[in-house]
Structure formats: structure tokens, C-alpha cells
Sequence to fold (121 residues):
Amino acid sequence: MNKVEVLAAWSNYQKWWSTARDQDILRFQAISWPTVTTVTVAEDLTVNRIASFVLSPHHSQDKSPKDRIKEQLLRWHPDRFDGRYLPKVPAEERDAVRQAVGHVVKALNELISRDRDSPFA
Fold:
């Protein structure tokens, strides 16, 4: 991924999060998932794709990797996401969104545990 792609994706991601609560309907395809690549199914949300986006050196350089991951864990926490955003998702897409959010959280938890296991943590 080049710098321009990452910066554009990060900008879109931040913009989506700043307006998501104001949306009446949130569709799976319209949710800004934490990757540079397009997400069509939950399985697209791999640890590597999420890590290369969240931990990219092209944005948020003022935050440590651990702080970046924690920020995203708070954002995607199932209780928070389910309470604020899931009611806006059409019923026929809720299971897919719930599953995708689970993939995001699992990947972020894996990244935070890798950070804890690092001798430099």
C-alpha cells in the first residue's frame, strides 16, 4: 500500500466515524471497516489487513501502536457498536455486521497481545 492510498483511506475512515451516528441507515458495504481494501464479507477483515491499516506509519504518528489499537478497540467494542450503530443496520444485514465487528475485535485483540509479548513493550 502506498502512502496516498493509506492517507485517503484513513481520511475516509475518520470522516465516516465522525458522521456515523447521524446516519439513519448503515449498510454493511457502507461501513468504513479498518482496512485499505474493500470489505465484502467478514472474512476480509484479517489481522494483517487491519494491522497494515491501523498501524500504518503514514498516519497517527503521534500515537504509539498500543494507543492506536486501544483507540480502535474502544471504537469497535461489540457492546458499544451494538448499542449505537447496529439498530441502524437493516435486519437482513445485522448478522453479517455483527460477525464482521467480531472479526475486527478479534484481530485488534491479537494485535494488542502481540504488542504485550514484544520485548520492547
About this structure: The mean pLDDT is 93. The chain is about 60% helix and 0% strand. The radius of gyration is 14 Å. The chain has one domain: 3-117.
